[in-house]
Structures are given as structure tokens and as C-alpha cells.
Batch of 2 targets.
Target 1
Amino acid sequence: MAGLDTALTDVLGGKTAAALAKSLDLETVGDLLRHYPRRYDERGELTDLAHLRPGDQVTVLAEVRKVRRRPMRNRRGSIIEAVVTDGRGTLTLTFFNQPWRERDLVVGRRGLFAGKVTVFNRTRQLNSPDFRILGDAALDDGPGGGEVEEFAGALIPVYPASAAVPTWTIARCVALALEVFDPPADPLPAGLRARHRLMDLDTALRSVHRPADRGVLTAARTRLKWDEALPLQAVLAQRRLAAAARPGTARPARPHGLLAAFDAQLPFELTSGQREVGAVLAAELDSPHPMHRLLQGEVGSGKTVCALRAMLQVVDAGGQAALLAPTEVLAAQHARSLRALLGPLGRAGELDAAEPATRVALLTGALPAGARRQAQAEVASGAAGIVVGTHALLSEGVDFADLGLVVVDEQHRFGVEQRDALRSKGDSPHVLVMTATPIPRTVAITVYGDLEVSALRELPHGRSPIATSVVPAGEKPAWLERAWQRIREEVAAGHQAYVVCPRIGGDGSEPDAVDEQPRPDEDEDEDGRRAPLAVLDVEPMLASGPLAGLRLDVLHGRLPTEDKDRVMRAFAAGELQVLVATTVVEVGVDVPNATVMAVLDADRFGISQLHQLRGRVGRGSAPGLCLLVTDSPVGTPARDRLAAVASTLDGFELAELDLEQRREGQVLGEAQSGRSSFKLLSLVKDRELITTARAEAAVLVEADPDLAGQPGLAAAVAELVERERADFLEKG
Ligand code: ADP
Ligand code: MG
């Protein structure tokens, strides 16, 4: 008999087990049983053949309509051509020199056919597809009858498969494994299962592979989703609990300190969101346990001001604060803006310093040795209350006098391990992570589940709104001309413009290795689309055409750092009027005088990315304008996405939409997995389940931190932690 840990070699033939291990990475019975079907075909319903696209690797359920064998024209041997149908469309199957196939291809029978779609003579084909004719109850003469029937029920599981291991082989292996499978220990506590009416694990595993009907299938999938949600939420609850128990240093606010002086000199009123977040941060810093908080807010929502106020509270309490940015350029920019915000409060030791005052030290690899030594000395002595650098700051063994707070800016992939590394610096400093990418709640509690989350949802008053329009260059060329004219008008009024392209270009069409790639569009046929517009083609085109006479330059990830800096400085100083760039402008470029942005081939970018991009205009007092230029026709998913971006400025709403579209992009195509470690759980559709699991996990962990009373769940948690660690080591 077998359990989840039994090796597949003990259950299946050695050759089959080896194939499963090699092509699908399935080693144990548990791996196999958790290799869930991608979809289920109904015996009665055939696959819609009209939606197959050339190049797709597909498995279709269809009926054999016609079979003919003929000799090959120029060679010996024969070709079988079979036509299969869904009742409307057809698909031609061709087999070269496999005469025995003819016997299985009985007209009128149904089967699963797997292969890659090609087009020949304008008909869609599968060349030498793998196939399996389905046995049916009435005439049970299907191949393999008598052995394990892999498709037992009316719902036929279709598995994520590989060329070497087709879906029916997996189905047969699953059937064999289930025959010898003993009911496993259930990781979900019995009380929880009863509360949520969840199936036991054994039934769920059997049902997900061989469902009696759709109702049972749904119940099985729900139960198995809990297996994904609960251990993760339990890990996160344990981490939160451990963090809350970890000793730290309280950094109480001081009545007449730097923070009070800073607030008194602020040229604006804090928004109510900033005040709320400020109160939360102030209280957490004043606790003898380290803070672990994520602060979300759009670019320009005033996060930096919140962070600076927290840093000042720590400095007032005698500690130091470090601000970490993802790049040296951004670190330098942060140091400049912190110094500007602080004014004389940040010039301790200089002639015009205020009293009290501190210093802001910038510490990056780009510093000349002398300046670096001086900065290091200020950090080590504590003269610099605020230290700005890149993430390297912590790994490079820089000495702090008393590091009390670490603020991490703009870091989207700042994992648990990095946070751990960071805590080992100083005496468990408080940690504040800031992100400008709005994260839907389910993602936040999944990815950042060990952090508490705050958000700044409103922009400061007086901020001019950004108007966004879709410019359908294909249908209405005049609109594109108007777009260039708008840019000329803004420039004439003394403002500046961005033109963003999806690609750098220059030497052929090789992908832009440095900048983040726009998301490939899954909703559309890639065939026959022209290459995305490239910075190096667009700039000369504009300079000699619609924007002739203006001062243009290019910015992209392949430029040497000096050139990048030179261009950025020239743009910031207003010497350049139009910057033609890739998404490098997405992060942190801050030029308040830039008021208009044209995004070319906007359909090539993801929703959140477009939203992030347009945050670059309208940073000053003049209204911002964002033009989303596209060739995609009305009614296409790509065009709808752009319309959505144009219709709202709510980044959270757009983030939810983005997430939905990403997950739903995969309808008929095979492949596509590994987007997340979840197999069944969807961050979009299972919001409620995830939220409930989080609450359940918190209660369980609170009552029994090590889960000693729940060995099944404890094992699942341990496995998850191990996998996470392995992934991290692999990436690191
Ligand atoms: P973020 O870090 O979220 O991008 P910042 O803190 O850098 O945002 O703020 C963006 C700009 O808005 C800065 O110039 C800042 O001085 C200004 N600002 C911040 N808070 C307010 C406010 N409450 N009222 C007016 N302007 C503000
Ligand atoms: Mg900022």
C-alpha cells in the first residue's frame, strides 16, 4: 500500500516513473496526486475547434468524422489523414507511416487528441498527434479495456502534460496510484473541516482526479485550496507572532525634538491619511518590539514624508534611521530630497544649522573614497541620524552607532529572508517597507503576510489630476497628429514631455534585457503583429518629423551609467524638452515640470505598469496628460485594458483588474504554470477563502504557536518553509 511519500517507482513501472520524474518533476505519489487536472472535458461536449491557434500545444476532445489512407507521393509509405470535428469546425490529423493507427480511428468515435496546431493549405492540423479513443459504456472496446480505465467518469480530466507524457498516461498513473493509496493523515484540523464543511483529504484527492460530477469536483477543489491557503497563512501567523515577541528598542517621540521642529516648518498640511499612518508608526516605534509594516501608496501620495517623520522620531530618541533604495541613482535622489525637506534641520555642524539638527549621510559605491570615508565616520559616530544608501548598505558591514529604523523604499520583491538579514543588523531595528505599486489585499496578505499593512489612498491636495486618453492611431491617424501637437503645445508653454516605447531597438529586435519587459499579451494572436516600437527608431522619426525643432534625447537601460545620468540631469534641468525612453522612467524619475507623456504601443504594457508610468506626469502644479497610443482595435481585450486605465486613477482598483486579467489569460493553451506556487488557489477568485484561512490560522497559531497539537498541519508548514528556503537559495 502507498502513502503520499511513497516513491512512484514503487507504484508504477520504472520507465513510466522515470518519464514522470524527468518531464514533470513528479517523484512521489503525493507529487502525482497533487498534479491536478488543468480542466475537465465532459464526455458529451467536444472542444471548440474554432479557437485553436497555430503554435498552441493542445489536447482536444473531438469526434472522428473521416479517415483515409493513401500512399505518399514521392516516397515509400503511406499517410493517414483523419478529420475530427466538434460538430462545427474541423481539424485534420496526419500520420506518416503509421498504418496501424487506422484501426483505432473509427469514424463516429470520440477521442482526446494532443499535439501542436499547425496550418497547412489553410486548414488546421495536428501532425502525428498522440491520441486516445474513449471507451464508452455501451461498446466497451476502447484500447486498454480490462486494465485500469483512466477515464472512469463523465468528466475527463485533462492534465498539464508534456510531449513525453500525454494526459492519458498521467490519468492512468493516477488511477494506478489511487488503487493502492491508503487514506493519508489529514493536515486540516477536524474542527476546522467541520466548521467549513470540507471533505477529508482522501476523498478530495480521489474526487479531484475522478470526479463523479461537477458538484463533487467543486467541493474537492475547495478542500484542496485550503491545503494551499492554510499552511501558508499559518507560517505567516507564526512569523507575525514571533516578530511581535522579539525584543526591540522603543523609540518614543520627544516633545520638542526634531520631529516637532520639522512639523512646524512643513509648508503644507498633512493629509488625513498621512496623519493616521503617522499615528500608527509613532505608536509602533514607541513599542519595545520591532515594527514590521508595509506602507503602500501611489507615487506622490506622500510616503516619503511619512517615512521621514518616523525617522525623525527615532533620531529624537537617540537612534539612527537608514533609508534603502533599489538603485544608487534613487538613493542619491532620496538623499537630495530628504535634505531639501529638512533644510537647516538636516545641517547639523554647519553654519546655518537649526537647533536641534541632524545630518543626512549618503553612502553608495559611487562615492569617491574620501567622501565615502567621511560618510562612514558620520554613520559610525552617530553624527548622521539619517543614512541613505542601497540595499548593499546592510551587507557591506557599514557600522552604525545605533540603528533603530530601516526604511526600504520601492522594493517590490523584498522577501522574508532579506528582512531577516536586515533584522540581524543592529538590535532588531524597526522596519518600514514602502511600495508604490498598489497591491490587492489578497496579494498583500499572501506575499507580505508577515507585515502589517497600511495604505495612503488619497493624493495630497492641490495635486493636479492626470487626464488620460486612448489615442487609436490605427483608426484615427488624425488623433495621433493631435497628440504630437499637444506635446508641442506643452513644450511651448515651458513644460516637458516623455515619449515611452516598449523596446530599445537599435540592433535588430533583440529583447530589451535590462528594463522590465512589458507583459506578453496572452489574449491576442501574436502572429503577424509588427515588432513593438523602439526608442532608437522613434527618436529620430520624431526629431525629423512631428517634433522637429524640439530638444530630444533618449534614455534606456543599455546606456552607460554616465550617459544615463547626463541625460537625466539635462532633463531635470529643463535643457531637454522631450525624453524618449523605455520604462526606465517608471521608477523614481521626478521632474515636476514634465506634464505630458505619450506611451506608444501602450497595449504592450500591463495595467499596473501604465498606471505607474503616468504617475511621472502631473508631479507639479500643472495638470498632467497621459496619451495611450495604440493600434489595437475597439473591442479587443488589449483595448479594453487601456480604456480601464483611462477611466480611473485608483491604483488599487487597477491592481485588482490587472491581477484578474493575468490569471484568466490562459484558456485553451497548454503550458503556462509556475506563476505562483499555488496550483488551485486564485488570488482573485478565492479572496474570501484566503481571508478566512488567515483568520483561522491566526487563531490556531495563537493557541498553539508550534502547532504541536496539529502534527499534520505542522508538517505541511515545515514543508512549505523548506520549499521557500530552497527557492530562495536557488534564486540567491
Ligand atoms: P511618495 O514618496 O509617496 O512618492 P512624497 O512623499 O515624495 O511621495 O511626496 C510627493 C510630493 O508631494 C513631495 O514633493 C512632497 O513634498 C509633497 N507632499 C507630501 N505630502 C504632502 C501634503 N500633505 N500636502 C502637499 N504636498 C505634499
Ligand atoms: Mg517617493
Target 2
Amino acid sequence: MKADMEKMVSLCKRRGFVFQSSEIYGGLSSCWDYGPLGVELKRNIKEAWWRDIVQQRDDMVGLDASILMHPRAWVASGHVDGFADPMVDCKECRQRWRADDAKDGKCPDCGGQLTEPRMFNLMFKTFFGPVEEEAATVYLRPETAQGIFLNFANVMDTARKKLPFGIAQIGKAFRNEITAGNFIFRDREFEMMEVEFFVKPGTDEEWLNYWLEERFNWYINLGINRENLRLRQHTKDELAHYARFCYDIEYLFPMGWSELEGIAHRGDFDLAQHAQYSGRDLSYYDPDSGERFLPYVIEPSAGVDRSALAFLIDAYNEEPDKDEIRVLLRLHPDLAPIKVAVLPLSRNEALIPMAKDVHAELRTCFMTQYDDAQSIGRRYRRQDEIGTPLAVTIDFQSLEDNQVTIRERDSMKQIRVPVAELTRTLEAKLSGEPLDVLPPGGSYWLGFSN
Ligand code: ATP
């Protein structure tokens, strides 16, 4: 079962994943603040991406370019002229819409008549320099990609890479989106995870297919159900100004199939434009063939916030539990904000020193949460609802045999393990080892029939 958007917004607020920006002033539309759990989720998504895209590959390096760039860069890239969405206004209620959100030609809110579409540039402008009147106008980047193209020669000169190779970047981007809504799906400030993968012309189709498969499987490996993902090719009139082909990885969000990640074939558009506008040679010299050429680019471009929403929605589950409903997030352990909860059975004084010792040891290895308020059942439910994969419970018997229980979120089964084996066992379980594989001295506990 998946969450509808209302449930997800409410869970995110109640548990501290996501808050409306500037809430105490009435909120700032399409801007969001990530709370104590949301920041961990986002960090985990970015770390998983960086690990798979940069750390584990020989053909990729990272970059962190500045958000503000020379204004000419956005002229060269085509964004000043072309980064615009068609916008319509309702003649009755005066609301403004993206033309593709008002497909039947009527205001989605009041059904009123709409104006003819006008193009609206989505880039935010600001002033560069201390004197506003004299300052140059610069843009907040609407994508991280251009920072990569501008550094192509710098990276080539320093990273000693041969084609095919890629440059990866994670960072904030800003778009003055026409319509807000759908929670963190469409924001005016958001984070992107982008790769520009440079290849020799002629090998581009092969690499496009490679990245389509690679990126599609990334979401599945991190727990998204296969049936909630699909690939859709852009039609000719949908293509962005720089793209030769483009595919969207779409997720079945509560409002319907929508883009999660775009994978575009940008050809040599960007390098050619920047070479022309800057006067710098941005061609690549192939030492094997002795040729010089502009590489083609395949660009997998993902949103951190949109991924977070998809992971949360896909992980959401409600299960009957006696007379109540158990709400749980079946988040992949790599993504779960808290990996291990440490829960003394009660607040009894005798249990606290051991529980604190166990917590002190575990927190050096994992993101943990110590909780001794309320009944143990309620504390398990709280951890289920925020997606904590494992809980460690210290009870009175622990004081005698130096063993504790590990409870698994999804099955609610428990095993009992010696404290000396605890860290290693938790590490193995978080890496996918089944709960019923016991460490030395361990035993089956609640939920196992034998
Ligand atoms: P859309 O058609 O939904 O506006 P787009 O085609 O303009 O998206 P791209 O330019 O391909 O989006 O951006 C790459 C990725 O960045 C998207 O797949 C999405 O995950 C993310 N993204 C783009 N715009 C936003 C936004 N306003 N808020 C949150 N994430 C975004």
C-alpha cells in the first residue's frame, strides 16, 4: 500500500521530516525545510548516489561548482532565451497555471476561462555586488549541469581521465516555478544530483541505454517497487532546447505518473555553445586515435527532494495490528534516517546504566535514537513509523546474561544476542543478512515458532 499525499504530508510534519518554510510567517510557497529526520533521509539519498556514481566507479569524478556563475554562461546555455514554461492566467479567479496543468483549456480551480499561453522564464535573478543600481544581474542556477560544462577543461587537465568519463555533482538549484503544489515534488529551491557523461560520438546511443538501465535499477535496488516505475521517451515537442533525445524515469506518485529523473542526450550542444561564447577550445584530444573532437554528453539528472518523496511514499505501509493500525515506513536500511533504536524495557533505574552503555557504543557506528518514554509497544510503533529498521531492547534478563534483543521492523521478529556480538550483528542485518542467521551465542526470541 502507498500513502496518499495528505497522509505523507501529515506524517512528515508530525515526525519531523519536512516543514513548510517560514511557517510562523504564514509559509513561503514551494519552499520546504527538512527537519531532524528529513535531513538524515536526504543525506542518505545523496550518500547512496555518490557512493554508486562516484566512489565505486573508475570513470567518474565529482565537482562542487558555485551556485552563482558568470551571466554569459546562461546566455550561452540557452537558458536566458529558452528556459521558460508556457503560463496561462484564469480570467475569473486570476490564478496562474502552467499551461500543461490546465490541459482542457479551463482553470483547474474554478473552471474559468484562461488567457492565451505566454512564456515565463523560470530563472531567479539577483544582484551581484554591493551597489544595487550598478551591480550586474546574475542568476541562481536552475540546474547544476552548467557548472560542470564550464569546468570541463579544468577537470580534463587535472583528473587525467580518458573518454568515456563523467563528472558528477550534487547541489541546490532554483526555479521560479509557475504553480506550486504537490508537497516536495515541485519546489522553487531544490537539490539536484547530476551527471554529465562525456562520450565519443558514435558510442552515444550505447551509453544512453546504459544509463537508462543503470538509473532505473538504482531506485529498485533502494527499495522502490518495480511496478511503480516506468520509462517514458519525450516526444519531439516536449524536448528541452539542448536535448536530442530525452527519457523520464517516472514514478507513480499519488497525483499520477510523474517525472522522477530525466536522462537526456545533450549531444555537443553545451560544450559547443560555451566554446563559442567564451572563445576557449573545449575539444577533447583522443590520444589513441590522434583525433580532436567535441564529446557528446549523456545526462542523468535526478532530484533529491523528488526522490525523497518517492522513497517515502513507496515505503509507506499500514497493517492491521490487534485493534489498531500499525503504520510503518519500509525504508531501505541505507536510507532510513535512524538505523538502530536503543530502548530499555522501562525507565526502571536498574536498566538505565546498561542501556546507556549499549547506546554509547552503538552510536559510534550508527545513527541511533535512545528512547525510554512510554510503553515499549508504543516506542516500537514510533520507530516503525519513522522507518527504523532495527531496535535493541535491554531488559532485566540482560543484566544477568549480558544479552539483548534485536527487533526487526518489517517482521517484528526478535533474536537475542550477546552484547559482545551486537555491533557486528547489527551491521550484518543492516547490510541485508536475514534475521534468522544467528551470531555465536545468539538465540531465536519472539516471533519465531521454533
Ligand atoms: P518538470 O517537467 O517536472 O518540471 P523538468 O523536466 O523541468 O521537470 P529536469 O530539468 O529534467 O526537470 O530536472 C531534472 C530533475 O530535477 C527532475 O527529474 C526532478 O527530479 C528534479 N526537479 C526539477 N525541477 C524540480 C522542482 N521544481 N522541484 C523539485 N525537483 C525538481
